[in-house]
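Throughout our pipeline, every protein is held as a single compact record rather than as scattered files. Such a record has a labelled line for the sequence and another for the backbone structure tokens. This encoding replaces a full spatial description with a residue-level series of whole-number codes. For reference, a complete record is included directly beneath this paragraph.
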Amino acid sequence: MKPMSRKQFIATSAALGAGAAASAMPITVTEEKKQLVHHVFFWLKNPNSIEDRDKLVEGVKTLAKIETIRKLHVGVVASTEKRDVVDTSWGVSELMFFDDTAGQKIYQDHPIHQAFIKNYSHLWSKVVVYDVAEV
């Protein structure tokens, strides 16, 4: 066996020690809870109005204060490649994640959501909703 320098010895010892410590740690596997996804698309009454679009985006963002919403993504049509399968006819979208259907129901009935509908519905001509249960 070839003699080891002090530096090599320390490096090897550190690596072995880290490996031993890691193998002694318990491994916990947690199953991620499946969520309910609520995706809404809004068609603006005035689709060429940036002001109306931005006002609706502002309104959608107020929904983030509802306690059962785990994540909120607000978006507008992306400037991606035009393809037959891509629908770019809408103006604003909201994508929300809930722990379960009970959380989504609280959102639906929540005063902030009701105020959003009252204060911003004049901006849209059509709304399409996709509620998705994770499998």
Q: What stands out?
A: The chain has a mean pLDDT of 88. The longest strand covers residues 124-133. The chain is about 40% helix and 25% strand.
